[in-house]
Design goal:
5-stranded parallel sheet, 19 strands, alpha/beta, 7-stranded mixed sheet
């Protein structure tokens, strides 16, 4: 398996689970994405007695991680278990969760009373019509092309001091720079260990930052990293530099390129925005609203740095706003009738 293949494997699927039948007719809302944001939005809608269907591709961003951290009362819960509970809770209130990949989503002809309609098509040809759409497809992490790096992703190769920091405290940690966005995390990981090395990896580091690193005891190495080295048990042991030297490290922290999952959603015409040091994401306003009437976005697809709790909260806010707009549309239709 090549390192690229290993990286693609980091987008592992969740354990198999029973998929509900796709609803017939028109539903109040379809949620594209079955992670924390999508499921919490669906939960709010289902508890409001809205007909809601979640389309879940089964490839959550945090699947490689052993546990979710920093989430009150659920700290340490495996990602797959958190999602399993979420799916069951949505179903408890009449919502449906359907396993599938969305290949297109686009506006459809409005109803007779002028209410919005959208058509969502799955890879197997199935279709569903919905009055409103919540996009919560999340993002994927693209790691630097350093041999041996990807296979440790989510374990000894981490990205977030709040998600993984406590678990790697006091270990010899290396920061593999990917640009200016790597400077801030270096200071945060320094809070967790006294043995921290910053590998510039052919990125510029100005003298002021070098002085600040030196003041905190952060070692800086400018020689490029050529590969990740494992010990005899297959655990991360360090990195090899271009000059052949091996620097022992037990953990590497890296800021990956974050790519919003937008495939199949082009037909919605959602605007995107460039976020400094992060990447591209769907633009959104308060409560996940977008410039496209009838479409909301929530979670990492619009806020790449949001943790699980923040993504779930964003999904809830979007669900509340969707229900509010549906209530207004229902009242308008009743008046016309």
């Amino acid at each position: 398996m090549t390192d690229k293949e290993k990286q693609e494997a980091t987008a592992v699927t969740t354990p198999a689970y029973a998929s509900d039948a796709l609803a017939e007719g028109t539903v109040d809302a379809v949620v594209i994405g079955g992670g924390a944001a999508g499921l919490n939005g669906a939960l709010i809608l289902a508890r409001s007695r809205r007909s809601v269907v979640v389309i879940d591709s089964g490839s959550p961003r945090n699947a490689p991680a052993e546990a979710v951290h920093g989430l009150l009362a659920l700290d340490g819960t495996p990602p797959s278990e958190l999602l399993r509970r979420g799916r069951e809770q949505v179903r408890q209130y009449g919502g449906r969760v359907v396993h599938g990949d969305v290949v297109s989503a686009e506006p459809a002809a409005p109803s007779a009373d002028g209410d919005l309609r959208f058509t969502v098509t799955l890879a197997d040809g199935r279709r569903i019509t919905a009055r409103r759409v919540l996009v919560a497809t999340g993002l994927k992490d693209v790691l630097p092309e350093v041999p041996g790096l990807a296979k440790h992703w989510g374990h000894s190769v981490v990205h977030c001091p709040y998600c993984h920091g406590w678990e790697v405290r006091d270990e010899p940690i290396g920061i593999l720079a990917t640009g200016p966005a790597s400077i801030g995390p270096a200071l945060l990981f320094r809070q967790l260990t006294e043995d921290l090395t910053y590998f510039t990896h052919e990125t510029d580091l100005d003298q002021d930052t070098r002085a600040r690193f030196a003041a905190r005891g952060i070692r800086v190495i400018d020689t490029p990293v050529t590969e990740v080295v494992d010990d005899e048990d297959g655990d991360l042991a360090g990195v090899r530099l271009a000059d052949g030297q091996v620097v022992a490290r037990r953990v590497l922290a890296v800021v990956p390129q974050m790519q919003a999952r937008t495939q199949g959603l082009e037909g919605l015409g959602l605007p995107v925005r460039d976020l400094p040091n992060v990447g591209r994401a769907f633009a959104s306003g308060p409560d996940g609203t977008t410039e496209v009437p009838g479409v909301w976005v929530a979670g990492n697809v619009t806020d790449p740095v949001a943790q699980v709790g923040a993504s779930a909260a964003a999904g809830a806010l979007a669900g509340i706003d969707i229900n509010k707009k549906l209530a207004i549309a229902d009242t308008d239709a009743a008046l016309q009738g």
